Amino acid sequence: MPYFEDVQLGDEIGSLDTVAGDGEVAAFCQMWGNPMPNRFTDWEEAEKARLPGPIVPGIMSMAMMAQLVTRWAGPTALRDLDLVFRQPVPHNKPLQVSATVTDARQENGENLVECDIMLTSAQGDRYVGGKAVAALPSKPR
Amino acid sequence: MVMKLEYDRSLHEREYRAGPFEITEEMVQAFNRSIRETTPIFTDRAAAQAAGYRSIVAPPTLCTLLVRQVQLPGLDLKFGRMQFHAGQRVRPRAPIVAGDVLVALSRLKEVYPKTGRTGTMVFIVWETTFQNQDGVVVAEVQESYARRE
Asked: Does the distance separating the beta carbons of A76 and B85 come in below 8 Å?
């Protein structure tokens, strides 16, 4: 993981390439306790909700976006992840999570790095966007 | 002109509790599989224990799965017919470890209108705080819903 002192504004993080397959979304919904059928797993339910097809649940997209932060900054480094769901996220398509550092500050005894973070298609369509804050260690003296 | 929203404002004074929820190793592993998570302290008990944890650590957004277990009331909002999940915020405060037992406390944080290119929408924000068995706040979660006509 990087040291706080080595991070610069504008640094790019990622991308993390991922995909949410039908089976993974179904397993996620089962764990979540979402009543079946639902718009996340079923074509008819998705069409009733005027969606182009079954979509990835927002909190599953969030979990995938958090992975970029935890892989970069460490598994317990995430302090804030604040997301806006802009477009439905499709199943079985390549997805990319990426982030750009927008601020670095010390607050309440922690070294915090703030980033703009987004989940896009391989073609760059923005599905989910927002802000992430992670805590980083200082460089040893 | 300020839009006057009609809804049950007494909900701001109330809190809704749910739980206890035991965070099992099976739950954490199922979450890991669904997002292809491979980080050792999330997936491997020995690695987590070597890092000083009692058991595997839950990925930081796992508690979002539990928010809908809180039975929340309708707002009786006199605006719009279509509602959708507009946003989500998680602020992890302390690691959640398999074996922890959490309780959730939800409250209506805010209801506000916003006008953009596509017209006016009303945003409804619920905030849920999770505490573990030791009374430590481990995460705060906000769910935002947008309603439009």
From this structure: no
Q: Are strands A110-121 and B82-92 parallel, antiparallel or unpaired?
A: unpaired
Give the percent of chain B with pLDDT over 70: 99
As a whole number of angstroms, the distance between CA B148 and CA B118 comes to: 10
**Domains in chain A, please, with CATH?**
4-20+56-136 (3.10.129.10)
Q: How many separate domains does chain B show?
A: 1
pLDDT at B68 over 90: no
B141 inside 8 A of chain A by CB: no
pLDDT-flagged residues of chain A (< 70): none
The reply to whether residue B65 touches residue A78, judged by beta carbons under 8 angstroms, is no
CATH of the domain at B16: 3.10.129.10
Cα(first)–Cα(last) distance of chain B, in Å?
19
Bridge partners, A133 (sequence order): A80, A114
CA dihedral of B30, B35, B36, B40, whole degrees rounded to 10: -70
**What is d(CA B58, CA B45) in angstroms, rounded to the nearest whole number?**
11
